[in-house]
Amino acid sequence: MRKRNNRIVFYLNDEELTALTDKVQKSKFPREKFIRITLANKRITEMPPVDYGCLVFEMRRAGQNLHRLLVIATANHFFEAADSLFSGMLFCVDCGSKLNYVNEDRRNRKKACFICSAYRNETTRCSSHYIREEIICNIILETMQRIFRSVQPFEDPFIAKQREQFGIEQKRELNARKRAYDKAVSRVKEIDALIQRMYEDNVKGKLSDERYATLSSSLETEQKDLQAKLPAMEEELNRQVDQEEGLQRFIAKAKQITDLQELTPELVHEFIEKIIVHEKKYLDGKRYQVIDIYFYGVGIIKELTPEEMEAEFQKLAKQEKSA
Ligand SMILES: [Zn+2]
């Protein structure tokens, strides 16, 4: 007899046991022999846990459904244009809300548009500010192409024009902020001197203790308030410096784009900070709609006019001749 050193243990429920007993009786073999014959030449592998079996079964079932869903979704262009390049970047000029991307007919992206989200939720809150995605796309592409094309050959006048723009917009504001800051700083110092003088007056008996306490405490409060405001004011003043840095960064990035043919998500997100959409207007029966494009680091870009470019071109030509 061959040596048998593999032990197999079965656990059967009542039903299985009855079935087995039946089969054993019919076979007329002893139970052990019947089982040996039944198992002969069968490879015994370890069963995976029951849960695993259920999981595989469920996955297969879901898999078939997922596949069907995928077929339906693809046939209905569900995966095309579910989102826009500009989603989350457009804002309403009138109420400040984001514009929602509306693309209900996925088979026809030409109808995809943006609408003020406040208006969409409640029509009385704003007007639609409706603009088609395609229009935005074209405007952005053309604007970027124009800007990049003029940055390359006309870097210096381009920078000068942006600086001038920063200047015009912010000179007044900056001066006002600087004055406010200087005033706050000198007032803080002045209060120190005042308190010192009051203290001396108090010592000399010119100022009563009570009066001294009230005055000095109110001055101290004023001083504390001012000192708390100073860091924020300083930060505001320094923002001008950041703008110059932003401009330089923009120029460096823009110079790397030599041939812009189409917009990619990377390009859009690298250059464009936000797009402000105005409501459409009709002038002589023609539809007009203003959009403000804010570029990272520079804000709204002041483009060189054709005349300015021509003048610059002439200047360069003259320089070349004299060189
Ligand atoms: Zn709005």
Topology:
Blueprint lengths: L13 H14 L3 H9 L10 H26 L14 E3 L6 E4 L10 E4 H5 L9 E2 H19 L3 H50 L4 H48 L8 H7 E6 L3 E3 L2 E3 L2 E5 L3 E2 L5 H17 L1
Helix pairs in contact: 6-7
Bound molecules: zinc ion (ZN).
The site of zinc ion has 9 residues, from helix 4.
Please, could you describe this protein's structure?
The protein is an alpha+beta fold and 323 residues long. Helices cover 60% and strands 10% of the residues. It contains nine helices and nine strands. Strand 6 and strand 7 (286-288) form a beta hairpin. The mean pLDDT is 85. Bound molecules: zinc ion. Zinc ion (ZN) binds at residues 92, 94-95, 97, 116, 118-119, 126, 129.
Bound molecules: zinc ion
SSE-based structural type: alpha+beta
Query: Whole-Å distance between the termini?
Result: 110 Å
Number of domains: 3
Order of helical and strand elements = HHHEEEHEHHHHEEEEEH
Number of strands: 9
Largest sheet: 4 strands, mixed
